[in-house]
From TrEMBL, chain B:
<protein>
    <submittedName>
        <fullName>ABC transporter ATP-binding protein</fullName>
    </submittedName>
</protein>
<keyword id="KW-0813">Transport</keyword>
<dbReference type="Pfam" id="PF00005">
    <property type="entry name" value="ABC_tran"/>
</dbReference>
<keyword id="KW-0067">ATP-binding</keyword>
<keyword id="KW-1003">Cell membrane</keyword>
<keyword id="KW-1278">Translocase</keyword>
<dbReference type="InterPro" id="IPR017871">
    <property type="entry name" value="ABC_transporter-like_CS"/>
</dbReference>
<keyword id="KW-0472">Membrane</keyword>
<dbReference type="InterPro" id="IPR027417">
    <property type="entry name" value="P-loop_NTPase"/>
</dbReference>
<dbReference type="GO" id="GO:0005524">
    <property type="term" value="F:ATP binding"/>
</dbReference>
<dbReference type="InterPro" id="IPR003439">
    <property type="entry name" value="ABC_transporter-like_ATP-bd"/>
</dbReference>
<keyword id="KW-0547">Nucleotide-binding</keyword>
<dbReference type="InterPro" id="IPR050166">
    <property type="entry name" value="ABC_transporter_ATP-bind"/>
</dbReference>
<dbReference type="InterPro" id="IPR003593">
    <property type="entry name" value="AAA+_ATPase"/>
</dbReference>
<feature type="domain" description="ABC transporter">
    <location>
        <begin position="13"/>
        <end position="229"/>
    </location>
</feature>
Length: 294, 248
């Protein structure tokens, strides 16, 4: 009956990197010819490797601007962008645009998160809920949410409600899908364990189903965060009278590439910070997993 | 004298005419079996002979299986599976006391862990345990319930030979201290005769052989007294002399 050996659910990864340093040294000495296998792992990570590319890019950009190789109208110098950012900040427009954009994304994300989690729990933990909800969400998922914009403008106008609604829809779908599949994909062996231990339904859900579904939930959460920024950019550029996207749209009319780049940089910072925050929470909450990947 | 003892203590497990089928195939075909309280029983059989099906039926785990017959088993029973089945997101102690109630739950959990030789590993994550340690933790989890009946489904099947021998000693010690009835499902004849006082062979959905192993404990694999039992059991399992020589 139980032919599965040990725990299939915990993704035990081999760690070839452990052998890597030794392997390298063996090559340096190498007076004794002995069979050495080819290391297939990419090797040890370079220090601060994630920053290497961006820093190099920035340096090239600055160098090309300083040498006059770039048309300042198309690609302004890094210092021009910084000066513009400082200027926009001191005259107050940048601050209020950022606040507006953050509020939209924040509300939309929060509503999408709560909605996605609530629907996934209802669908994942009860058969009635699954029958009512799952098909509907799958249908909703098939329609690209940004395609709903015209309809929602007619229903809700072009105010904040409409923007927050669209963002919430974009966010709830990946959260729902991932959490629901994690909840319904709970390992049958743990179901048996719960039965043998005489767990109540509530205990079973709290101690086995929910913690077991958390890794899937975090996958959805990260997709949701990305989705909230993506939809924010689109919404603010088509029909808005405030916010970062609006600032960039206006800048396009006046040919101010420096302002556009300031907007892009801020969007990038938003994305980076929120993704790092989710990762940090994930590492804390799923600390039992860290023992595997160190 | 045996009948007298049985009258005093009713059997822990009473099974009569138990039939279980998967589709058209009767995996268990009218099993009759009594396990007296405190008896250590091993159940042998080929893979697919229905050993696990019988164990799952006793454990009350076979909701999807159609069947008939009578079955009485104690409320306080524990199951040890082939895999340790520890929840990777709970620390070892929290796994051991999963589902227990009461203020002294942690206390009892610690005591059980100490008994299986895992004192000091309470805060470890299951992923940090070796296969043998994980199985010890699983044993501790079953001990916490102070079971009248311990069902073990090839609990040492995934362990290496050395660890398995150590686990045999541990299981026997635990049994001697707590005296639950034990039903140990295994495909390993040696494991069965070293540990159990009674060995059953499941064949064609029925109990084909039912022997008491009257050899004093502790037993060693090389005990010449066990040779006779080994031969009888191999014969009941349909293993010929040649194959036996090759595998043992």
């Amino acid at each position: 009956m139980t032919e599965r050996v040990l725990d299939g659910s915990t993704a035990i990864r081999p760690r070839p990197a452990d052998h890597e340093p030794e392997h390298g040294r063996a090559h340096e000495r190498a007076p004794v010819t002995r069979r050495s296998t080819r290391g297939l792992a990419p090797g040890r990570r370079l220090p601060a490797s994630r920053l290497t590319g961006p820093v190099l890019f920035l340096a090239l950009w600055a160098a090309a601007s300083a040498a006059g190789q770039l048309d300042p109208g198309a690609i302004p110098a890094p210092w021009t962008v910084l000066r513009t950012a400082a200027h926009l900040w001191t005259d107050g427009t940048l601050g209020s645009d950022i606040t507006t954009s953050l509020r939209r994304a924040g509300y939309g994300f929060a509503i999408g998160l709560v909605g996605g989690v609530a629907l996934a729990l209802a669908a994942g933990l009860s058969r009635v809920g699954e029958a009512l909800i799952d098909g509907t969400v799958q249908l909703n998922r098939a329609i690209p949410t940004l395609g709903l914009i015209p309809l929602f403008i007619l229903w809700l106008g072009i105010g904040e409600t409409f923007k927050i609604t669209i963002i919430a829809i974009v966010v709830y779908i990946p959260i729902y899908l991932n959490l629901h599949s994690a909840l319904s994909g709970i390992d049958n062996r743990f179901v048996e364990l719960g039965e043998v231990l005489g767990l109540s339904r509530v205990q079973f859900i709290r101690q086995i189903v929910i913690p077991g579904a958390l890794p899937g939930f975090f996958v959805g959460l990260r997709l949701g965060v990305t989705g909230s920024w993506l939809s924010l950019v689109v919404l603010e550029q088509i029909n808005a009278t405030s916010g970062l996207g609006y600032m960039m749209f206006q800048a396009q009319n006046y040919g101010r590439t420096d302002v556009i780049i300031v907007g892009l940089l801020i969007y990038g910072i938003f994305g980076l910070v929120s993704d790092s925050a989710v990762r940090l929470i994930e590492r804390r909450v799923l600390s039992w997993r860290r023992t595997l990947s160190n | 004298m045996a009948t007298h003892a049985e009258q005093l203590t009713p059997p822990a497990v009473r099974i009569s005419g138990l039939t279980r089928s998967f589709g058209a195939r009767d995996v268990l075909d009218g099993i009759d079996l009594d396990i007296p309280a405190g008896q250590f029983v091993a159940l042998l059989g080929h893979s697919g002979s229905g050993k696990s099906t019988l164990l799952r039926a006793i454990a009350g785990l076979d909701h999807q299986v159609t069947g008939s017959g009578e079955l009485a088993a104690p409320q306080r029973l524990s199951v040890v599976f082939q895999d340790s089945r520890l929840l990777p997101w709970r620390r070892v102690l929290d796994n051991v006391i999963l589902g227990t109630r009461g203020k002294d739950a942690a206390e009892r959990g610690r005591a059980a862990l100490t008994e299986v030789g895992l004192a000091g590993r309470e805060r470890a994550w299951p992923n940090e345990l070796s296969g043998g340690e994980a199985q010890r933790a699983a044993l501790a989890r079953s001990l916490v319930w102070d079971p009248e009946l311990l069902l073990a489904d090839e609990p040492f099947g995934a362990l290496d030979a050395l660890t398995r021998i150590r686990m045999h000693t541990l299981l026997r010690e635990l049994w001697e201290r707590h005296r639950p009835s034990v039903l140990l499902v295994t495909h390993d004849v040696d494991e069965a005769i070293v540990l159990a006082d009674r060995v059953l062979v499941l064949d064609q959905g029925r109990i084909g052989l039912d022997v008491s192993v009257d050899v004093p404990h502790p037993r060693s694999y090389r005990d010449p007294l066990l040779g006779e039992y080994r031969e009888r059991l191999f014969a009941a399992l349909g293993v010929t002399e040649d194959v036996q020589g090759a595998t043992t």
